[in-house]
Amino acid sequence: MTATEGGICARAIAYLKPLMQDAAPAISLSQEDSPVFQPFTNDLLVAYVADASDHLAFVQHRHLEQEGVSVDQLHAMAISNLQALAEEKLVVREYGSIYVALMGGNFEASLLALDVMWSEWYAHLAPQGFVAVAPARDLLAFCDSSSERGLVELRHVVERAGDCDHGLRSHLYRRTGTAWKQLAVTP
Question: Chain-centre distance of CA 164, in angstroms?
């Protein structure tokens, strides 16, 4: 089966995961059974998942081999699928000095990887550039980098997220060009 015939690679969606530094693996997997990851920031990775009805299934290196897909091709398809999902489900709401992205509960944080969202769709909301937080997979909030009140509110979002399910990182991220750079969360 090839990616164009509906394999897992063709259905994959880009999905942010935290980079676990200095952690011993819970289990050891062969290269072919290992999930495909790409670096995103210094503390986040892009993984690739597909809906398996009752869970999200990770794309593994063996899927690339079986479907004749490169990591770059997988990434392009997964970003395209994330964009299609966002076009269908994304709602951005203003709350005080920040904006919150809502999309159903699994891929909000992953929207950080969707360049078109930041460079086109919502660029008008942050003329001085974006600062965002994504403390959990289902939580993405952002503001204009020049908004002092917005930056305070983003820090509060991180504090309220606490030890939530599917946590990511408690950092502010500043968009520079097409990349996100980690900022310290300070009081």
Answer: 16
